[in-house]
Protein 1
Amino acid sequence: MTTIASTTGGVAAAPSVLDRAVSKVKWRILPLFVVMFIANYIDRVNIGFVRSHLEKDLGIGAAAFGFGAGIFFLAYAVFEVPSNILQQRFGAKAWLTRIMATWGIVATGMAFVQGETSFYIVRFLLGVAEAGFFPGVVYYFTQWLPNSERGKAMAIFLSGSALASVISGPLSGALLSIQGGGFHGWQWMFVIEGLASVALCFVVWFFLDSRPEDAKWLSNEERRELAAVIEAERKERDANRPPHASMFSLLKDSRIALFCLIFFAIQLTIYGATFWLPSIIKKMGQFSEFEIGLFNSIPWIISIAAMYMFATLAQKHRNQQAWVAVALIVAACGMFASTTGGPVFAFVAICFAAIGFKAASSLFWPIPQGYLDSRIAAAVIALINSLGNLGGFVAPATFGYLEQKTGSIQGGLYALSAASVIAAGLIFLTRGRKSA
């Protein structure tokens, strides 16, 4: 980490002042970002629990459901980079609050869809509203935390998706049982979960500041020290950044293109399982909505332990690419095994696959961050995330089409297995010297 002389007169004082500032930042923003990520994730994937209800009440079949589930990610990919550019213009406080408020309003609007067309429109608008949240938070870390602290902050932030996967099942299952007021249970679910995000945006507005210089909860000395270190690291990155490097020119870098492709394969498997797992559980027996939600949380509980285990092993035996490859092979084996037995065996196999694809997701990000540390910027992070997240469009859309045409998603599960195996091989091609 860059050493900056303390503004109070000695180099020796700088670490203690900086450490105090960093500790305050982490305690203030990380719990909030984790809660935001949980709300974000629930609002994008909760439709997986209402597929049968949408078919029964609105006539939305498997293909239409898969396309509607996936079109969110198409909008998300298209609008993510512009969203991050606007965040740099308007500041994180205003822009992240705006993102949360609008996605909460649109998520609530899912309760009022009337058929396939309105379903597609609202899901697309939800993608537009949420676009920029993930890379916006990552970019926020670059403005508030030194290089040495960002990896740990990212690991804590990413835990939000795993926690959301655990919470969303029982929560959505419980809300689906609500009746009355002229609404079906699935409508109450969308209204309550969407309005919870709207309410949370007021907390975001109160707690977030756009820059360290604006943080009244830091002392003057802590603000100066933190701002000085962040600025020094920014200048170092700018000095090493190739001239006129744009999002599109970076894509010409074969390694960056590989990052996008590998993350795409990981997201394919994650969202293929996320949107279709409740349907698989329903085939296991006669369960209530709440019981389905509880079963749905099991793979994600297992995955949290697996993410920690893999992260510990990767830290102890340093070969990040190899651990990502191992995780992807585990995911491939699990998804392939899910095609060989009945619904109960398929569920157990997906629990095994979750160990792999969630661990691969968390282990992946340090690799591009290490390669891009001299050029890291909001637009670059958004590029990898947005193109990779197109897997969230392809997987549910393909699964829905296959089920409607063939009555089975087996072909899709084979494809997910193959994608994970290919990604496991490609990850080794990302090794090499950092770009200048």
Protein 2
Amino acid sequence: MDFLLDMKTIILSLGVGHLFTVILISAYWRHHKKDAKITSFFFAKCTQALAWLLLALRGGIPDWLSISMAYTLLFVGTSLEAIAMLMLVKAFDRGARKVYISLMALSIGGFHLLLHLYNTGAARIGFASLGIALFLVIPAYRLFKESNASLLMRMIGALYFLVFLSLTCRGVAALTSVNNMDIFTPGVAQTFSFLALYLVMILGNTGFVLLLKEQADQELIRMASLDELTGILNRRTFVARAMQCLDMYAKKKKPITLLLFDVDHFKKINDTYGHNIGDQVLRHLVDTIKGVLGEGDLFGRYGGDEFAILFPGMDEAESSAVAEQIKRTTREAAAADLPVTFTLSMGLLTVVPDRHTQLDELYIACDKALYRAKENGRDGAARVWSENREALPS
């Protein structure tokens, strides 16, 4: 079976495909010009469309357009696409920026030096193929190996890696060929590398849009789950996750501790220093307490200056020690970094839950303990003892 396809047709289809992508994305990009990753991807498609169309016109237009300009645009466009993908996974840092600026400079400069010193079709194809492959290997790796990568990210990463391999094989085949090659010269390596480029054009474009959608969905979930001011769980999400935790530890027959606390005289802080300082107090408080909590602890804002923490697997002695550490740490941090000092009042309850344990009942009990701490002079913790106390580990 003959797998050799007409190269000019494939190249022209690549140009037309990128051109239609530009037309479709332009309507979306007009309203998202400030989004760097979308802007980078849009201009990547623009330059790639023009590059492939110029390459397809080889022989009918001057060489400086179909070779020099076309390959320059191809290097720039591939680099911008790789940068957009890295931005999408938040991996385009200062180091990556330097790498891609250097790769673009070396690719464009090296290619034009090659045109003056050794201008053959095989040399051009080999250099361009290996250069473009280098642009793609970093996003391929980051998309596929990211620790929290979704299945979609891994699939797109694998796709880019496939293109990297095909371009590398094409580059090596061109540089080691005994016969001079041109971009339109038929061959197995040529055919499969262009098919891979065609595949990544279709699936890569779709994948980029799907990744944008996936990230937007994740951001909506995050916004719906977290408190806007402090960045911790809002009340609804805290309650939902705490109920799941109660069910889990009821099956394990291990203790959990609920800690409820608020800022003493918080209204006075707002009235005296203003709500801006009050917001700073809450953000500073949350950031300080996060440093004390363990990975599995649930931390949520119930509303106003009232917060709740659920400590899975923590008994009375351990939770009392953590409560004291929170109280001490927040007092020291507040004195050092804020124009106002503050203290906390806390209520604690430790139980070994069963299938009848309700979070609302635990909250009511902790709330009573919290007010007892306030009645005792504030800046302290009070504990309410559960009926399950004898079941707790000593």
Protein 3
Amino acid sequence: MSQITKLLIANRGEIACRIMSTCQRMDIATIAVHSEADAGAAHVAAADEAVSIGPPPAPQSYLRGDRIIDAAKATGAQAIHPGYGFLAESPDFARSVLEAGLIWIGPSPEIIASMGDKDRARAIAQDAGVPILPGSPRFPVDQLDGLDEAATAIGFPLLVKAACGGGGIGMRRVDRLKDLKGVVTATQSMAERSFGDGTIYLERFVARARHVEVQVFGFGDGRAVHLFDRDCSVQRRYQKIIEEAPAPALSEALREAMQAAAVSLAETVRYAGAGTVEFIYDVDRGEFHFLEMNTRIQVEHPATEMITGVDLIEWQIRQAAGMLDAAGQLAQAPARHAIELRIYAERPEKNFLPAPGTISKINWPSEDDSLRIDHAVRDGDSITPFYDPMIAKLIARGPDRASAIARLSAALAETRIEGVPTNIAFLASVLETPEFRDGELSTDLIARIIPPKKIAGL
């Protein structure tokens, strides 16, 4: 066991503040790192100490693992928590942290590497008995022999996916064979720029799809539990904006099968810590298939925390320190429902284009047992073009889904953010649609219920 008394957070914004709140309760001192653009940021002000690690662009600061490790050593931190994004799923960074004699709060570098390679992760999932979508072998850059044959075998439409991509980045639909090679070339070029690896593979496109994921926690010894499921189908540009737990309108048999598959995968790889196994549910076929495994805390983890009462960050820290006893599987989901939505500085009417600027004034609704707000912004703070433009997450819960929607709608109506355009009106309109209220969710929900002309009028 390793007692952690000082922890460095290799991240910024709301997730850094979220981790700090748990550390403060655990009497753990926190170290913030920041770029020059974030010198006056909320997460810097909330930390016990702060270290500047470089210029505003992420590759010169938040992606500089060497500077982050140097900051940990200089401040006497024993552990590093990566949050999500940036270096959270970098096996090289995780390995460097361990080699520096520090505690890495996450799964092993080997597991991060295995699950970060989408094609390899599919093979591991298949070996664990988890169903996968029909797909192709890997195609590295300039090695496209057999591409047309693989595509024909899968059928159109299909997806071209970056093997090392994630979060909707590096994924493109192709409807005709004659368009395939051009899309593959473009995707490989983008993947090389974004991930340093242009390898792609092909996968069946699911026309009516739901994105359902299972929160798992592994104890590193072949045992794992799930903390139930979430639906993340409401997306724009392949990126989630509304998530809820548990996933609505699933049969208990289907729900239990997904949960069992997720636990099987986590146990097969002897997973340690918090992770999420993501599935695509084919509504027309009534089948679910493995999508990917995220080897980190998720943006949407508060929805799970709101229905279970578990502090996943605390579990992560205790697990990494060897101070967490293996927990038993909760028998059934608590009788409550939680919904999370993400508020962004963006222009929905312009295809959700990011809208950086200075927030002049914020008015949040009052938090209570039914409402949680995760944010790291104050009056006068700037949303810069260097990082993701998410402003906050609102998470509401109730004894049932209808109550959670009502609480979230009321909270959203009380939220005022001035100085930058936001998606608040757009989110409110989604919550009001009959399709959302009836739980008729799918990844194309927004395109189906709110056409571009209507979005432009919000």
Protein 4
Amino acid sequence: MSITNALPTGDQVVQNLPWRWNVQGRIFLIGGLGFMFDAWDVTLNGVLIPLLSKEWDLVPAQAAWIGTANLLGMAIGAFVWGSIADAIGRKRAFSATLLVFSVFTVLGAFSPDIVWFCIFRFMAGFGLGGCVPVDYALVGEFTPKKQRGRVLTAMDGWWPVGAALCGVTSAVIMATFADWRYTMLIMVLPALLVFWVRRSVPESPLYLVRKGRTAEAAAVIEDLIRRTGGAKTEWRLPEPAEPEKLTLRTMGTQLADLWRFSTKTTIAAWSLFLTILLVYYLALQWMPKILVDAGFAEYRAFLTTSGMAAVGLLGVIAAALLVEKVGRKWILAVTGPLSAAILVVVALVVDVPTAATIWLLAYGFVVQVAIPVLYAYVSELYPTELRGSGFGWASTVSRIGAGFGPLIFVSVLWPYLGLPLSFALAGVLVLLAVLWMARFAPETRGAALD
């Protein structure tokens, strides 16, 4: 094989292969299942809050730690697993995230009290927190560049699927067994199945080259060419490049680079991620409890929340159809504040089951138009060398906000302001973020990334 520098590298060949559902599509489906479990696990917090509040006689401030512990674990896991993937490989990290999640979910199901339960939920979140970034990295590296944008956008469609499955499964379990422990144990079975299936996903050739395993890297690339029917041409392996290790020093450098690039852009990215996703997590975690307190039976509250999540799949489709026609800023400017306003309406009509259900379905659709566009927009605000860290830090800020925000919501705002005003205050925060974006952040539709 020629090693002339004029030849394309193996990873470039992989990025130009034809799309095949039984090759790259299979990796997309397996990676998407990890994203689905992330949604299932976050939605499970909302299911567990009313159930454990009754089981252990928890006040809302105590119950809020069910979601807070889980989301903080995810925030830390999102960073740590990136370094783990660099050390042990995408494939092993790809599988290990779900294994860690499964072990601590089982332990959580047998917790004797709320303290141990939160510890195990934190560790389960830590495992699953690495699932999404590792999945995105692996799916992106194997997807042809012509399809990459659509495929990575479609990954977000797994979220409403996972959230809806959580609600439906929990409703069936509570109607049949009336035991919250089964709601946790049942999701471990498909998680372990996905863990087993993930063993067949090939290792990233770029990782193999970096580790000096060039023969294995060449074998993976040649196998992909053969299975997709790609053109057989000469190519060379890329030069190995050891990635920078993630330490406190490099994290500080990343942060400084983001703010040095543009203070206004970084404020826009962080504030949009923080406020829009805070509103989403407030609804996802506390809506089952709100509905139960309003008189809904537990199984009906879970089914209603499941419907709210499921209709979000239509929102993702609408976002994909509108994002290039309308532009990122206009969609976020409308759907962000509108989703919060709909929650205020839900709080006002929650005692009328039919009206509350209709407005919750409207909320599920609108907020899932906003979230995929938000992901696309923030990733486009930074140049290539800052894009990963820019998106990663904005996502981490949102996870921390989603962890502590509901704690403040149920401990301070809801008891003193009431539910409608509390949601309205969250909406004001979204509106402020949108106004900052409108004034200081650029529109990225059709813009070159660099």
